[in-house]
Amino acid sequence: MSELTITAIARKAGVRPSTLRYYEKIGLLPLAQRVAGRRRYDVFALKQLELIAYAKRAGFSLAKIQSLQDGASCGKPPALLWRDLAKEKAAELDQVIVRAQEAKRRLVVLSRCRCRNLAECGDRLRNEAENVNLA
Questions:
Q1: Burial of 109 per CB tally in 10 Å (0-12, 13-18, 19+)
Q2: Chain mean position to CA 112
Q3: Helix H segments across 27-60?
Q4: Which residues pair with 5 in a beta bridge?
Q5: Are 45 and 32 a contacting pair, CB within 8 Å?
Q6: From CA 134, how far away is CA 106, in angstroms rounded?
Q7: Which pLDDT score is estimated for 111?
Q8: Taking the CB of residue 52, how many other CB atoms lie within 10 A of it?
């Protein structure tokens, strides 16, 4: 594959050209070569975009992806960097899961509400939540 225009690589990566410019600006992508004033990207940039997209789908922020790239550019093995980031993200997701499960249990309680007005709801919902170990 030869060098790609910003439009071509954006299409292949499934992002907008403005995303590529932003990634260049914040250092996630190296600055593209210019040919007649237009950006040209090589296969390395496409691979970087694939990595960024994968990491984003795994829940990593652009800042975390940047820290991974920074660590790798300082000679740290990517496997160790990924392991540390994945462990941290997994713990974060465990907390999200716990909060989501609690929210779902509370929705069950809310769905059983038989209050005649909102003034009754606070006490009744609190009592029902205590009965199902939510409080």
A1: middle
A2: 35
A3: 43-57
A4: 40
A5: yes
A6: 7
A7: 87
A8: 22
